Amino acid sequence: MTNGLDLTLAAVQLRRPGALRRLLANSSARVGLALVLLLALTALLAGVLAPGSPSALGPAALRLHPPSAAHPLGTDVLGRDMLQRLVWGSRVSLLVGWIGVAVAVLCGTLIGLVAGLGPGWLDRSLMGVTDLFLAFPRIFLVLLLTSVSAPSLTLVMVVLGLTGWMGVARLVRAEVLTLRERDFVAAARGLGLPPWRLARQHLLPHVLPVVVVAATLRVGNIILLESFLSFLGLGAQEPTVSWGAMIEQGRGYLLEGWWLATFPGLAITLTVIGYNLLGDGLREVLDPRRAGGGGEHDR
Amino acid sequence: MLRYFLRRLLISILLVPALLTVVFFVIHAAPGDPLDRYTDPELGAAERAAIAHSLGLDRSVFEQYLSWLGGAILHGDLGRSLHWHRSVTGILAETIPHTLLLTVSAYLIYLLLGVGGGTLLARYRGHPLERAATVAGLTVYSLPTFWLGLMMILLFCRQLGWFPASGMHSPDAVFLSAPRRFLDMLHHLVLPAVLLGSGSAMATARYLSHSLTEVLGQDYILAARAKGLPERVVLGRHALRNALLPVITLVGLSFPFLLGGSVVAEVIFAWPGMGRVAVEAIFARDYPVIMGTTALSATMVVLGNLVADLLYALADPRVRLVGRRAA
Fold this sequence. Notes:
The complex is a heterodimer.
Chain A: H1 2-9, H2 19-25, H3 27-44, H4 46-49, H5 82-117, H6 120-134, H7 138-146, H8 153-162, H9 166-180, H10 183-190, H11 195-232, H12 243-251, H13 258-286
Helix pairs in contact in A: 3-5, 3-13, 5-6, 5-8, 5-9, 5-11, 5-13, 6-9, 8-11, 9-11, 10-11, 11-12, 11-13, 12-13
Chain B: H1 2-29, H2 34-38, H3 45-55, H4 61-75, H5 88-123, H6 128-142, H7 145-159, H8 178-216, H9 219-226, H10 231-268, H11 274-283, H12 287-315, H13 317-322
Helix pairs in contact in B: 1-12, 5-8, 5-10, 5-12, 6-8, 7-8, 7-10, 8-10, 9-10, 10-11, 10-12, 11-12
């Protein structure tokens, strides 16, 4: 009996009618979704919203102008419009956030599935590797790995992905361990399904909601790390505009040009708040057991 | 209990060398020769080879690894810095107290804000105050720490002039009497410690308040209230003790974040600690210092996790029987 029920549930909680409605009923999720969409549109339409090159030098007379009607967020040391640069900078944050998370979630899901389904020794050694990575401040690993070669965005995305899979791996493994004991998995096994088909057809749909939530909640962290790397000069390089590098450029003008460092930081904060709110909302809808706690440390 | 403890200890002892091995080969696999950075490009091949030989850089990576590991384990010798021309142990001995001072101060702020804030949040569940605090917590959690540090400098140092913006002592500190020098140091400590302590505290406060609310819904709390116990006793003696269980693990797990966060705080406030040295060493390709800071911070983090695990086992009798399953 549970078998039939399970199979119906397995028809993906994501596609359950009303999931979106329930998400939109949650006010913080609404705010989060709005912020995330706004940002995605800004990044996509940067060329329309803020035409012209964001890195071309501005007129000398326009250096370090405070916010005004013509330049709502002021101009930087090179006379460039801050608003235009912020709009273009959203591209880097989103690109790194999304691709970094994609790498992390792919690795994490794969490792979690293999650990949960595989023999005991494989599970133990994979979880050992996970502990190894978790035992170390991520920022050290990230700095070490990004400094091994010339700074580039690709490197940043790969490194942030490869140092961020552990939480996902643990979540997925824990989920698989409980699913493994359920009747429908036993039935599928009894039918002689090979492990990879079991994983793909019967486990993955159940694990997917957890993964979607974990992924959304991790975008923010990756954006934060990217901005710190760019701030240190290890991320995006000129002429690519990134918010972290903009903060670095404003660091020397904290008092004379407070708007230089302030606005990019606000942009990062709003973005990260957006993803965190959306992630929390998604968790309440898709993964109610874990909802509510803010304790998901995976920085 | 003893077996559980020994198993944890063994795993912890094995984790550190495993991590060091990985880091060693990763940094040595990186393209670029550290000699390029530290020698005159005009130097003849023979001189270059001589310098490489004297630093042991002409040996295979594997040999270098064995000799590094041997020196570290047998003599506690972590080699010499290529960049600062000093022994790595000397650099670490000088900087680690600074980092510990910063981290421990931040930890106190973190505990105060985390446990105090979490209890308050649970107490005022449903109150507008709770909602405001949740929003504030989420905002702080979503702030880039390095930017928050810059904003603190902008406000408290440049604008208001309340605190110094960098370093650990004022330039004239050497002329001050010992107690005044200590006060001067505390003055420098405030901003970096607050920066480091407040970020994770918000997450812990949220987590604790959630766990407290869960506990407050249990039957034995109802029983305690029915007995007519004052709310303070119900909250403090009956609820908090149980709600703190998951938080103990979180506190232990927070150690790597605090240590990692100290990198940011030290870089922004020019605090002369290990994190700043580590960042400079990474930029300078100073292999021995990178390995040294890695070894030390990994040991500290592993010890922190071990202590948290033990505290958890001591606090929760159930763990002693079954061992810790997948978290």
